[in-house]
Amino acid sequence: MADPTQDSRAWWRTSIIDIEPGRIDIRGYPIQDLIGRLDFVEMIWLMVAGEKLAPGRRDLLQAALVAAVDHGPLAPSISIARMAATCGVGLNSAMASAINVLGDVHGGAGQECLTIYAAVDERQQAGMAIPDAVEQVLRPYLDKRRNIPGFGHRFHKRDPRAVKLLALTEAAAARDEVSGRFVAIGRGIEAWLGDQKKTVLPMNIDGATAVIFAELGVPPELGRGLFVLSRSVGILAHAWEQTQQGGRIKGPVPPAVGYTYEGPQNKTDE
């Protein structure tokens, strides 16, 4: 007689965790063997990639996650976390409200940048020089007057986070801990944009973290997930700080600032 629970057991399939009373195995490792031995960044990678990270590669991932945690209370996701905290919701709701706005526009540049790097790399691996590959991939962006994700910043003339991350990645490449291919691609895009726009348009945090994620073999969609994981730390910190500060139903600006009304005036039914 067929096991009536067989179909139910196959309903969810996972290679991440195997659990039963008294036993928890993560990717085949007993959890008690990981506790106290893996740091949090190593555990993240084991969970999402299914393997342990070599020390140099772990340091790069850690640097990328540290660099992207916060960009101030005027960043939309951070503002939303703080506003939600003044509305009487718990930390989980404040965090969820903030995380839910990390989409294509706010939070998605790294994913798109990873896609661009992959397209340039594919052409380079086929024998095309980096400047020609960059031209082929990015010319449509310029022709349509689209922003180039990962390059330039509305606030920083040169993003200090990107400068540090690129230096760390170049050092790791010199030690053969990563290939260095995507560092070269990122630098090649910077140079090409400088020629096209006749001005410096340096890499920003999204472009630099995308370099690291690409060097580690992270797919674009997972790259966004890792960014969200990183920014969640800042979201939590701001939501908690606002909870401690108090305040009730705070909007995006003080009430005295007001807003602009653009609708009709003095309408009547007569």
User: Can you identify the CATH class of the domain at 69-251?
Assistant: Mainly Alpha
Total strands? 3
Distance from first to last alpha carbon:
80 Å
Proportion of residues in extended strands? under 5%
EC number: 2.3.3.16
Protein name: citrate synthase (unknown stereospecificity)
Family: Belongs to the citrate synthase family.
Pfam family, one: Citrate_synt
Please specify the SSE layout and strand pairing:
Elements: H1 6-9, E1 17-20, E2 23-26, E3 29-30, H2 31-34, H3 40-49, H4 55-67, H5 76-85, H6 91-99, H7 109-125, H8 130-143, H9 160-174, H10 181-197, H11 205-215, H12 220-245
Helix pairs in contact: 4-9, 4-11, 4-12, 5-6, 5-12, 6-12, 7-8, 7-11, 7-12, 8-10, 9-11, 10-11
Task: Give your account of this protein's structure.
With 270 residues, the chain is mainly α. It has a domain at 69-251: Cytochrome P450-Terp, domain 2 (Cytochrome p450-Terp, domain 2, Orthogonal Bundle), CATH 1.10.230.10. Helices cover 56% and strands 4% of the residues. A three-stranded antiparallel sheet has the order 1-2-3. Strand 2 and strand 3 (29-30) form a beta hairpin. Helix 7 (109-125) crosses helix 11 (205-215). It is globular, with a radius of gyration of 23 Å. It starts with 5 loop residues before the first helix and ends in a 25-residue tail after the last helix. The model has no long low-confidence stretch (mean pLDDT 92). It comes from Ferrovibrio xuzhouensis. Belongs to the citrate synthase family. Pathway: Carbohydrate metabolism; tricarboxylic acid cycle; isocitrate from oxaloacetate: step 1/2. InterPro entries: Citrate_synth-like_lrg_a-sub (IPR016142), Citrate_synth-like_sm_a-sub (IPR016143), Citrate_synthase (IPR002020), Citrate_synthase_sf (IPR036969). Residues 246-270 are annotated as: Disordered.
